[in-house]
Amino acid sequence: MTDASTAAPNTNARNARRQRPDLAEQLQQLKSGTDAGAEASAEQQQPQQQQQRPPREKKPRPQGQGQQPRQQARKPQAQQQPQRAPRKVNPVLERLFELYPQLFGARFVPLKLGVYEELIARHPEDFKAEDLKIAMGQHARSTRYLESVAAGLARHDLDGNALDPVAPEHVHHAILELHRRRLHRNPGEDLRPQLVARIAKAIEASGLDREAYAVLVRSRDANNNAVVDEALAELAQQAAKREALLRAFEASGRTEQEFADMYGMKPGEVARTLQHARAERQAPAPAGVPAPAVAEEAAPVEPTEPAAD
């Protein structure tokens, strides 16, 4: 008869022999197992999320769009030009401005002939002869001074008194020099009509007849002579229009106001044009120059404003 203790193994003894971990170790193992499982599940889910996320559509970028801001940022730097240093004013001109602000200040006027000698005599301690000559040359060649000469202003002495007007040939040459400088600044612009009109006004303001003015300003420059001829032809055409208007007025038998109203003209323009035409009729014609041709019919012509004497 078999002993019951030897026939069935004692399981309680086996369990007693196996060491059971304490509670701290169980918690540590549980925690480490949970973290590892979470990391594993996260690694498994991340590829799935990346596969499930739809790819972002790339919009076509215009060619050169990414480089445009850089180019625009560099463009102003490339276009920047070195600034010109301010032109130094001649110290002699500064001294002249201090002594005669009405002549060398904000407004330039033509100076009397011989003003250089007068300045030397008045201010021997202020100016050296050679330095003053250079400064006066710069002043006379300045655009502002040439504009005052071309306008036909009177010459002035050092006390600011107006003397005789500038000679017609000096006005003429100042106009040509200003025209040359404008052509240099605007090479593609047609400035010839303006030059012809300005010389025509200078001819009328000179008080000379057209033939005498032409003889006075003739030079070896064929182009300048051609401009004078164009101005003379323009003046002759204007004189013919004024004569035609005067004949139409005399034939109408009306007053100047009625004549202006009849043809829709301004009374003031009609009066000035008729006065100019009468003066031209009374002036003797220069030798060798025919009188301005007029139409046989006394048709009214648009009046032209005469230049100021």
UniProtKB/TrEMBL annotation:
Composition-biased stretches (Low complexity): 1-14, 43-53, 62-84, 283-309
Keywords per UniProt: RNA-binding
Disordered, as annotated region: 1-89, 276-309
SUPFAM superfamilies with a match to the protein in the record: FinO-like
Domain of life: Bacteria
GO MF entries: RNA binding
Residue ranges of domain ProQ/FinO in the record: 84-195
Gene3D superfamilies associated with the record: ProQ/FinO domain (1.10.1710.10)
Name of the protein: Fertility inhibition FinO
